[in-house]
Amino acid sequence: MTNNTKAYAATSPDSGLAPFSFDRRALRPDDVAIEIDYCGVCHTDIHFVQNDWGMTQYPVVPGHEIIGRVTAVGPEVSGFQVGDVVGVGCMVDSCRSCAACEAGLEQYCLEGSTLTYNGEDRHDQSITYCGYSSRVVVSDRFVVNVPDKLDPSAAAPLLCAGITTYSPLRHYGVSKGHKVGVVGMGGLGHMGVKFARALGAEVTLFTRSEAKVREARKQGADHVVVSTDESQMEAAAESLDFILDTVPVQHDLNPYLNCLKYDGTHIIVGLLDPIEPPVEAGALVFKRRVLAGSLIGGMPET
Amino acid sequence: MTNNTKAYAATSPDSGLAPFSFDRRALRPDDVAIEIDYCGVCHTDIHFVQNDWGMTQYPVVPGHEIIGRVTAVGPEVSGFQVGDVVGVGCMVDSCRSCAACEAGLEQYCLEGSTLTYNGEDRHDQSITYCGYSSRVVVSDRFVVNVPDKLDPSAAAPLLCAGITTYSPLRHYGVSKGHKVGVVGMGGLGHMGVKFARALGAEVTLFTRSEAKVREARKQGADHVVVSTDESQMEAAAESLDFILDTVPVQHDLNPYLNCLKYDGTHIIVGLLDPIEPPVEAGALVFKRRVLAGSLIGGMPET
User: Fold this and answer.
1) Cβ-Cβ contacts under 8 Å, B276 against chain A
2) What are the boundaries of each domain within chain A?
3) How does strand B290-293 pair with strand B260-268?
4) What is the pTM of this model?
5) Which CATH superfamily is domain B7-159 in?
6) CB A92 within 8 A of CB A24
7) DSSP assignment, residue A28?
8) Given 3.40.50.720, 3.40.50.150, 3.20.20.70, 1.20.210.10, which CATH number is that of A162-293?
9) Residues paired with B280 in a beta bridge
């Protein structure tokens, strides 16, 4: 599966480590070649390295929160120039012609999008390798410009954690006047609090850990609820319009559903497993509540 | 709890049975007194009689799909006259001042709506008794006119099964061009197929029973999928915009979620129990699908 790639080692000047890398492919007309400067570490990377989801194809080179500089462009590329600071997120290709792709929602491509790593290239069927590396070549549709005012070293997490939380908040129209809960204060939770605030919402952060209360407030949370404290959870009952649930492991959704007003929406962005303990259908029916999922974001949004 | 009511028996001329009844209360200014002609039998009635949900207060007089004739009105009633054919559904009162009531969504009243039977009257705290009876008195806000062109004997189920299926189809904007699945061919399923068709959708009825295929087509279903046949379910994968799930007992939602397109919505209107087997969160996340609940409908809609 790796016959189209050739491994080489490049010494990282900062870490002294020798990052594993693969030669970039020859440029296709719409390709952008990128020298990688920074790459975020997403929990998904760890899942893939450990084969937690049983679908890893080794060797795997993770990393899908990539910031780098353009070193070359294919002849059909008009949006990028050599030297531009750019980013690459979780996808590097999709069918581009289905209803989802035409709507700019490549993450829901009906044929399946090509993942940044451990995906299969649509042209040569090679396996994709990505950010924990020195260089990468990506079709221009899946490359984004990084504005000058963004610190490149801080921008990387926007490409997965950022868009994963921003996309559903926008999709569901979160704005001033809304009350939004964010569950979990990890990488996604940090982003969720900031985006919800930036969109004008009043934000409640739910955390199991008293130790995170201060951090949550520092990130802009208006309220913090320690979710292991039943009295705090009861006090939050039927108070929220939206909940952005970033927790990636099984947890009881029912106490959070109870915090939604009627017509409220609970959006799962972290969990992929069976929902256990089971959701009470009555909690949805009696209040016309919605339990939704959302996956990263499309390229126009990113 | 029943000191404001007095039981009496009235002989039913049709059935020969002696229906249990309670004297109507003295008319309040906004009250409508109704002589009951027809009453649907809803599965909820059976649940209440059997105390399946552990909340029945005996004696219980079920029936919340009521059609009758107005025999008297209070001095403030302007919308009804003696002799009018009218209906009463699942609610007979609500707080009338919360956000939900002001939006005409009395079923989601923040203080809780007053159920047609086994509810507690907001004024005198008596327990409500309803349709399997001879007479009832209901505040005019919760009485609906039955148009002449509707056969009164057939109209009763519209007041629960009808509005329960109509309301979510309208709320989610089902219209021409949408593909709608209806799960279950009971009382609600019949209504769901008819309403979805009437709204212009292409309708697929899911049933476990080969025996119901013909009935489903007779009711207007464009397609029928026997849900116990895996190949039929696979053929329906990612084909639907909405699913209206009328099944009132635990069942596996995952094969139905798989039949939704990305951004598709599965609406539960029958089930109130914990959702088991558990829903796969990934089925929601990877396709931005929605799992929603819906409860009867508000009075303007009814």
Assistant:
1) 278
2) 7-159, 162-293
3) parallel
4) 0.90
5) Medium-chain alcohol dehydrogenases, catalytic domain (3.90.180.10)
6) no
7) P
8) 3.40.50.720
9) A274
| Average pLDDT of chain A, as a whole number | 91
* Class of residue A188 by CB neighbours under 10 A (exposed 0-12, middle 13-18, buried 19+): buried
Whole-angstrom distance, CA of residue B133 vs CA of residue B265: 39
Q: Name the minimum distance, in Å, from the CA of A35 to any CA of chain B.
A: 30
Position with higher pLDDT, A196 vs A12? A196
* B294 inside 8 A of chain A by CB: yes
Q: Where are the alpha helices (DSSP H) in A85-159?
A: 99-102, 152-155
pLDDT at site B35: 96
Which residue in B271, B273, B288 is closest to A294 by CB distance? Answer: B288
Taking residue A234's Cβ as centre, other Cβ atoms within 10 Å add up to: 11
A76 touches chain B (CB under 8 A): no
Distance (Å, whole) CA B167 – CA A283: 18
Please state the rounded mean pLDDT for residues A127-138.
92
Three-class DSSP labels, chain B: CCCCCCEEECCCCCCCCCCEEECCCCCCCCEEEEEEEEECCCHHHHHHHHCCCCCCCCCCCCCCCEEEEEEEECCCCCCCCCCCEEEECCEEECCCCCHHHHCCCHHHCCCCCEECCCCECCCCCCECCCCCCCEEEEEHHHEEECCCCCCHHHHHHHHCHHHHHHHHHHHCCCCCCCEEEEECCCHHHHHHHHHHHHCCCEEEEEECCHHHHHHHHHCCCCEEEECCCHHHHHHCCCCEEEEEECCCCCCCCHHHHCCEEEEEEEEECCCCCECCCCCEHHHHHCCCCEEEECCCCCCCCC
Surface of B (11-70) touching A: CB under 8 A: none
Q: Give the residue among B176, B115, B126 at the shortest CA–CA distance from B23.
A: B126
Residue A47, helix vs strand vs coil: helix
Q: What confidence tens digit (pLDDT) does each residue in A135-174 have?
A: 999 999 999 999 999 999 899 999 999 999 999 999 999 9
Token couple for B228: 């116990």
Do B238 and A277 count as a contact with CB atoms less than 8 A apart? no
